[in-house]
Design goal:
The chain is of the alpha+beta class. It has three helices and four strands; from the N terminus they run βαββααβ. About 30% of the residues lie in helices and about 35% in strands. Strands 2-3-1-4 form a four-stranded antiparallel sheet. α1 runs antiparallel to α3 (about 75-80).
Length: about 100
């Protein structure tokens, strides 16, 4: 059964928004397509600057293994820009489509 993952965060103080957007785009092109079980990834940003990632995985196992499985330079760069104190993650099973 598919899983939807919602990740919310803010960038660290001093992070340039244009740079964050560029790193996110690199991640979207280079990393997301090769993450096992990831079917879709969308990045959004609220009016007050909070980032919200919406990810759809094929199943719960894929979602569970995805976090931390990529050790690429672009993933490290993206993670270094996130204020971890503001980060939250929720996973939900898709019950109807």
């Amino acid at each position: 059964m598919a899983v939807i993952e919602i990740v919310r965060f803010r960038t660290k103080t001093g992070v340039d928004e244009a740079e964050m957007t560029a790193v996110n785009e690199r991640f979207q092109r280079e990393v997301a397509p090769v993450l096992p079980g990831l079917e879709r990834r969308e990045a959004t940003q609220t009016e007050d600057g909070e980032w919200v990632l919406i990810l759809r995985y094929r199943d719960a196992e894929s979602a569970a293994h995805a976090m931390g499985s990529d050790t690429s330079e672009v993933s490290g760069q993206l993670m270094s820009m996130i204020d971890m104190a503001t980060m939250s993650l929720t996973r939900s099973m898709v019950v109807s489509e």
